[in-house]
Design goal:
Keywords: Coiled coil. With about 425 residues, the protein is mostly helical. The protein contains 13 helices and no strands. The protein is elongated.
């Protein structure tokens, strides 16, 4: 077999003066590398055998490892690739649906909001002394509707509706906010303060929001301290126990995996140093590769580092076949950790998208389910807009306003009865 053509990095190193920054790293896959000198000499390749590579290697694309450890390595790498594709698909689907919502849903939502504002102003006009004909009961119901609708719009940031609410409501928005914050502070004091053996910050009625945030931050800090204390005690108990053989093996694999990652990074950093480049174009290429190496190392992304090694022309296609079983198990452990992190990222991404779009947890996140939900939302909004336009016509004149109010009273009572029935079914009520 003719000798393999040296890479540009190897040719540059051969023609340049020795530099301690570019000292050749021992092979991570060379089982003799970590052995004492006498054992290492005995384990050297005989004359005529392929020379050991000088760095961490990954097989060429398409090559498969046949040993059990090699197959496990391949399975984890394929799992990582699947998870990456799933993450990309999630983001692509989510971004596409977000664009659809902005294009089709947002205009209808704005139209509905404007109709609600018009309805509040139309109903509020009946409190003008010049408009007569409503009984005290009807006026009370009218006030209740105006307060509820203006409150909802005010919470969405409508300052005009906030001012209207405070004119008609017996309790202003600020008073309601202070009352809710104080009630929550009392609940936190009852539920957590004694259990956590701590005294909460005093509630400041002049700054209810800041006071509540300070209380929550205090509880979080106390919970974190207790959690750290539990972890320290657990670590002390574990330290007193003699580790089992399985635990010792796992610890050895983890240490070997960390050492492997560090050495791979150093090898790539040495090979990609700009001083090894022969021209400006190669300097730019090495700089781009090194930036990717730094990002991959920070994320403990073994697969990305191996792929970058291939791009940097540091790959010996046959070398991984000569890797020892124990070293492959250590590398596989790194891949398992990376796959577990990607799985957490996938679940978190799906949860974020579902929360943004209001997709129930029992419905699969998919283009079909999102499309169906969007169609339901569009139909509901269109129906609500039609109903609100009809209601606006009804509340303009007294002959149609009274029947409309009677219908609203019936709907309110029906909702109250439903709430009572549901409360009766609640076993924790």
């Amino acid at each position: 077999m003719p000798p393999r053509k040296p890479s540009r990095a190897q040719a540059s190193a051969a023609t340049s003066a020795p530099d301690p920054r570019f000292a050749e790293q021992p092979s991570l896959f060379d089982e003799a590398a970590a052995a004492p000198p006498a054992q290492a000499a005995a384990a050297a390749h005989p004359a005529g055998a392929p020379s050991a590579a000088t760095g961490l290697r990954v097989q060429a694309p398409g090559q498969r490892l046949r040993s059990p450890a090699g197959k496990a390595f391949e399975r984890e790498r394929e799992r990582i690739e699947r998870l990456r594709q799933q993450l990309q698909t999630l983001d692509a689907v989510g971004l596409a649906h977000r664009a659809q919502c902005a294009q089709r849903l947002a205009p209808l939502q704005q139209q509905e909001t404007e109709l609600r504002r018009r309805m509040v102003h139309a109903l509020d006009a009946w409190f003008d002394g010049a408009r007569k004909g409503l009984s005290p009961t009807q006026l009370a119901l009218l006030r209740q509707i105006v307060i509820a609708q203006s409150h909802s719009l005010a919470l969405a940031g409508d300052a005009d509706m906030a001012a209207l609410h405070d004119r008609r409501s017996p309790q202003t928005l600020a008073e309601q906010r202070r009352e809710r914050a104080q009630a929550m502070h009392q609940e936190l004091q009852q539920d957590f303060a004694d259990a956590l053996d701590t005294e909460l910050p005093a509630f400041d009625p002049d700054n209810p929001d800041a006071s509540l945030h300070a209380t929550i931050d205090h509880l979080r800090q106390r919970l974190s301290e207790q959690d750290e204390l539990k972890k320290a005690k657990r670590a002390q108990r574990q330290a007193r126990r003699k580790p089992s053989a399985a635990q010792e093996t796992a610890a050895a694999h983890l240490a070997d995996a960390d050492a492997t990652l560090r050495l791979l990074y150093r090898q790539l950093a040495s090979a990609l140093h700009p001083d090894r480049a022969s021209d400006a174009a190669e300097v730019a290429q090495k700089h781009a590769l090194m930036s990717a190496v730094n990002a991959a190392y920070a994320q403990r992304d073994l697969v990305a580092l191996l792929e970058l090694q291939w791009r940097a022309e540091l790959v010996d296609p046959e070398h991984l076949e000569r890797v020892g079983e124990q070293r492959l198990k250590s590398l596989t452990l790194l891949l398992k950790q990376q796959a577990a992190a990607l799985e957490r990222d996938r679940q978190a991404s799906q949860q974020r998208w579902c929360a943004e779009f209001g997709l129930p947890p029992y419905i699969a996140f998919s283009p079909t389910s999102l499309h169906d939900m969007l169609q339901d939302q569009l139909e509901d909004l269109e129906a609500a807009i039609d109903a609100m336009q009809h209601d606006l016509q009804q509340v303009e004149a007294l002959p149609t306003l009274k029947p409309w109010l009677n219908e609203q009273r019936r709907l309110v009572r029906e909702a109250e009865r439903l709430d009572q029935r549901l409360a009766a079914l609640d076993p924790w009520g």
